[in-house]
Amino acid sequence: MKSALISEDKRAIELCIDITGDTSIQKAVEQLEQRLHGNDLNCLINNVGMTTELRFSNIYEKDMMETYRQNVIGP
């Protein structure tokens, strides 16, 4: 489903990326370059999130750090 922004403004570009995979990131870069037609990127809205299905009592430091890395630091 396209967001309201994408529906209203045809200049907006929506890309879905698996930020844990280099191939997905590279594919998104290529798609963006094609859509920009040599123009500059004026604004980037980064809406990334990841969660885990583990119960709080079963979450270990490595799980917490991976979630933090993906949600805050990125690739």
UniProtKB/TrEMBL annotation:
SUPFAM superfamilies noted in UniProt: NAD(P)-binding Rossmann-fold domains
Pfam family, one: adh_short
Descriptive protein name: Uncharacterized protein
Organism of origin: Adineta steineri
Lineage, top ranks: Eukaryota, Metazoa, Spiralia, Gnathifera, Rotifera
